[in-house]
Design a protein that fits this description.
By secondary structure, the chain is α+β, with helices and mostly antiparallel strands. It is built from 9 helices and 10 strands. The chain has a 6-stranded mixed beta barrel with strand order 3-4-8-5-7-6. Strands 1-9 form a two-stranded antiparallel ribbon. It has a two-stranded antiparallel sheet with strand order 2-10. It is elongated. The mean pLDDT is about 85.
């Protein structure tokens, strides 16, 4: 959201239930999303961003907060503070109350450090309750967790949020979610133009891949047909001997088909092994440019099963063509070679 408003916790909870929404969390006013961070007198950050987070935050990936006093630092914040995972830092905020300045402070533990690929500004990710405490402190309330015993006592009034950090469930849901928010008169930053460009490139690349794959499949089928027919012609004498020994036409045909299935299974197993070694190398090589926790090169069990079924189907159909020629071989052909 690019503009501030007044959103209740119930409104945000209803937003989280929408099918288009993958993650949503309320944020306070912009002034209250900043705080000073200190490690010592030589390492400090003024006005670092304080960002609320929760389970399932796509910005953090697999990282999670363990408690209210645990935070996740951005890589830039960790660099400037010279801290590592497990170190402690102090969070400080200032307010003006009755013509005097007051400083609230809390010691926090660095639970994890976010790689710069995800967020490159100095910031810390905290539980939403800590961010609400910072806002209440600046609004003049008494916040013991910040070491402050002055100010108005906190009320039971439910919190109101100025903005909401929202992520669509998938790239295909962004347009629908953006439209719905605009219908609610909420302006957002969605980067729809960039998304449409990526989807256009994806469609073009998919078309090119499908053409290449289709051409390769046709060539593979033609090559297999030729190989099976050549194999049958090369073994005409052996097949004729089998017929002479009492093998029926269906038995000879099943022998050819069974041979094709066995060869296909061996080739499929070899292909899977080559894929596993190649994908591991590919993922490791491009890991530095990843922007998500997903694999760059991955075949699901469903796709593996689908590929196996397709390979066996093609092999059986091609083997049937070779089997028909093998069935036509007569037992007398073996006697002519004697």
């Amino acid at each position: 959201m690019v503009s501030s408003g007044h959103y209740s916790a119930e409104w945000i909870a209803a937003l989280q239930q929408k099918s288009e929404v993958g993650f949503a969390i309320g944020q306070t006013r912009s002034l209250n999303t900043q705080a000073d961070l200190l490690k010592d007198m030589s390492h400090f950050i003024e006005n670092a961003e304080v960002i609320p987070t929760a389970l399932g935050d796509p910005l953090l990936g697999a990282l999670q907060l363990g408690g209210e006093d645990e935070v996740i630092l951005s890589s830039e914040a960790a660099r400037r503070l010279a801290v590592r995972e497990g170190d402690t830092i102090r969070l400080r905020v200032m307010r003006q109350l009755d013509t005097r300045r007051e400083w609230g402070e809390r010691t926090l533990t660095v639970g994890a450090i976010l790689v710069p690929t995800y967020f490159n500004r100095p910031a810390l990710f905290v539980q939403q309750s800590l961010l609400l405490a910072l806002e209440s402190f600046r609004d003049g309330y008494r916040i013991p967790m910040l070491g402050i015993s002055t100010g108005l006592p906190l009320t039971d009034k439910p919190p109101m949020f100025a903005r909401t950090r929202i992520y669509a469930d998938s790239i295909d849901q962004v347009a629908a979610l953006d439209l719905w928010l605009k219908q609610q008169r909420i302006e957002t930053v969605s980067r729809l133009a960039d998304i449409e460009n990526i989807k256009s490139i994806n469609r073009v690349l998919s078309l090119i891949f499908n053409v290449i794959a289709g051409t390769a499949l046709i060539g593979c089928i033609a090559s297999l047909i030729g190989a099976f027919l050549a194999n049958v012609d090369r073994k005409r004498k052996h097949i004729a001997v089998l017929r002479l020994l009492g093998f029926t036409s269906p038995a000879v045909g099943l022998y050819i088909i069974f041979q094709g299935v066995i060869l296909t299974l061996l080739a499929y197993g070899g292909g899977i092994l080559l894929y596993l070694s190649g994908s591991a190398l590919f993922n490791r090589t491009l890991a530095s440019s990843q922007s998500t926790e997903q694999m760059i090169c991955r075949i699901t069990p469903f796709h593996s099963l689908l590929a196996l079924i397709l390979a066996l189907t093609v092999a059986i159909l091609v083997a049937i063509i070779g089997a028909r020629r093998a069935i036509a071989i007569q037992p007398a052909e073996s006697l002519r070679e004697l």
